[in-house]
Amino acid sequence: MKLGEKQVLTVVKTVDFGVYLGTDEERVLLPKKQVPADIEPGDPVEVFLYKDSDDRLIATTQEPKISLGSLAVLKVVDTAKVGAFLDWGLEKDLLLPFKEQTVKVQVGDECLVSLYIDKSERLCATMKVYHLLENDSPYQKDDKVSGFIYEKSDEYGAYVAVDNKYSALIPKKEAYGTLTVGTVIEARVAAVKEDGKLDLSVREKIPEQMDKDATLVLKVIESYDGELPFTDKASPEQIKREFSLSKAAFKRAVGRLLKEGKIEITDKGINLK
Fold it and tell me: How confident is the model over 143-157, as pLDDT tens digits?
């Protein structure tokens, strides 16, 4: 009998509260409310095995949203001192221990997780899925992809599971805008590494992105009543804080607006014309 997996077991005994599946030596209960109609000893039944609230092995004919070896996005339905609990389609919610969270989660959040068996032989979830992601995606440079941010690093950037299965990274230098764990992002493949992993960018190629950045800069200047109190010589930190842009991207956008005659630069800042 395999905990955390779907399998076909044989009915060996019927009782008032359900049927026992397996063999005479090893058996598991399938509760009465889940027993298929007209079932008899010797009949095969496809079930999923997990542990109930009393840590007893139990069978279910319900379809779990995740099994051992797979990945799934599950919603947080409760939190407690031991961690968070996820809806995985079964009566007993799935525990996501604090030590297996890449960021603290709250009720309503969604998490990309895998399933594992802990030291107490119980099924638990983990957000540490890097080692389970595949490196053989069909995507090439400049392809548009969708992915789930499952972890962030101050040193490397945002880790993304493209299609919830392929390993990807938004490098720190490309990590502009709101990139939070638990969100789905649309991105462009910036590079396919030698090992097959993807580098992503949430920005377009420079010519297309420059138009978007120029529009953004114009709106921010307008929000300052047409007089931005600093120039393109401001610090990268200030520019990132105000615009979520790199200094280089900001300067390109300002150059575009200057060329179009929409702004002017003074000693004190950037003004609308």
Answer: 999 999 999 988 899
